[in-house]
Amino acid sequence: MGDCNISTPDNKQNRKNQEIRVPRVRVIGSHGEMVGVLSRDEALAKAEEEGLDLVEIQPQADPPVCKIMDFGKFKFEQQKKANEAKKKTKQVEIKELKFRPVTDEGDYQIKLRNMRRFLEEGDKVKVNIRFRGREMSHQELGREMAARIEADLGDEIVIESRPRLEGRQMVMMIAPKKKV
């Protein structure tokens, strides 16, 4: 079967056989060859003769383009292509990691390792540095923590939003660098 770009406007159902109402149609044969402009009845007879369906593939053309094909197989192939396209698109998630200005070195390394993993998977990371009690008077510790995270991750990241204070926490958004 020849490859034919089959488009459906607004993802509507393709009309087939008796559903096609126009008097004349341009027909493409079952092997992709151009048959020509025929009356609807002649085209239906030709499709029935081959034991296949007459499917309208370009209703907006003048005259509409129809192809002789197995409609069930066509729908299956369309569904398969749609599923493949859906698999290829990855939803970007935002992962959130919480730090404190006094986060211990071991905990920091574990969170950094998790952050690297999230970024490698293509997810964005929201870094929260939470201040409690009198820690609010030492916001420079939070800025140092954010700078340290940025330095430790190095060239593998893009800072989407610089550290900013939101209430009692400092927030920073990090995204993975696009692979070229």
UniProtKB/TrEMBL annotation:
Keywords: Cytoplasm, Initiation factor, Protein biosynthesis
Limits of the Translation initiation factor 3 N-terminal domain: 17-85
Entry's transmembrane regions: none
Molecular functions per Gene Ontology: ribosome binding; translation initiation factor activity
Family the entry assigns: Belongs to the IF-3 family.
Protein name from the UniProt record: Translation initiation factor IF-3
GO terms, biological process: ribosome disassembly
Function: IF-3 binds to the 30S ribosomal subunit and shifts the equilibrium between 70S ribosomes and their 50S and 30S subunits in favor of the free subunits, thus enhancing the availability of 30S subunits on which protein synthesis initiation begins.
Quaternary organization: Monomer.
InterPro entries per UniProt: T_IF-3_C_sf, T_IF-3_N_sf, Translation_initiation_fac3_CS, Translation_initiation_fac_3, Translation_initiation_fac_3_C, Translation_initiation_fac_3_N
Subcellular locations according to the entry: Cytoplasm
First-listed, main subcellular location of the protein, grouped into a coarse class: cytoplasm
Database matches in SUPFAM superfamilies: Translation initiation factor IF3, C-terminal domain, Translation initiation factor IF3, N-terminal domain
Gene Ontology cellular-component annotations: cytosol; membrane
Residue ranges of domain Translation initiation factor 3 C-terminal in the record: 92-177
Pfam families in the cross-refs: IF3_C, IF3_N
Species, as recorded: Xanthomonas codiaei
Record flagged with keyword Protein biosynthesis: yes
